[in-house]
Design brief:
162 residues; four-stranded antiparallel beta sheet; 28% helix
Length: 162
């Protein structure tokens, strides 16, 4: 049986260990809505709220763990949606200068996905992840706002499987 060929998701020739900011999207396996619920508030100014499920809490804590346990790596902004997460990850200092191999973005995401899947006890994530190299402050600001507004736009979100 011939399997479909996946196109590479990483930029060829780009060093993902160098300083920079990255916009990451990771989807749940089969886009199952298991991480959170988006609750629409009442009243004129009520904004939708994200209510995490128990597995969503685990994922949230694992994201916080990235900030606490990787030198020179920080998650600046994130949201845990029902079937995906968005993150802005910054690599602030080049790693590997002391003889250790550089910490690559895909290593961080791989460890995150492995840990959360093991804790969940079942397949949690779809294969791979989407990344976008944030090129400038305007790009960064647009992505920050996109993450902020993601719960408000859940009804029309392309990831929403209803």
């Amino acid at each position: 049986m011939d399997l479909p060929k996946r196109k590479p998701t990483r930029l060829r020739e780009f060093d993902y260990s160098k300083q920079g900011a990255y916009f990451i999207t990771i989807c749940t396996h089969n886009r199952r809505n298991i991480l959170s619920d988006v609750i629409v508030g009442e009243g004129l100014c009520a904004l939708p709220q994200v209510r995490l499920t128990p597995i969503g809490e685990l994922v949230n804590n694992a994201i916080i763990h990235i900030n606490e346990n990787y030198n020179g790596v920080s998650v600046d902004k994130y949201v845990v949606m029902p079937n995906h997460i968005h993150l802005i990850i910054k690599i602030d200092i080049p790693s590997g200068g002391d003889g250790t191999p550089p910490l690559q973005l895909y290593d961080i995401i791989g460890r995150f996905k492995s840990f959360t899947t093991k804790e969940y006890g079942n397949i949690l994530w779809q294969r791979s992840f989407h990344d976008h190299i944030i090129r400038n402050i305007n790009d960064y600001s647009d992505i920050w706002n996109y993450i902020d507004l993601n719960p408000q736009k859940w009804d029309e979100d392309s990831f929403n499987t209803k």
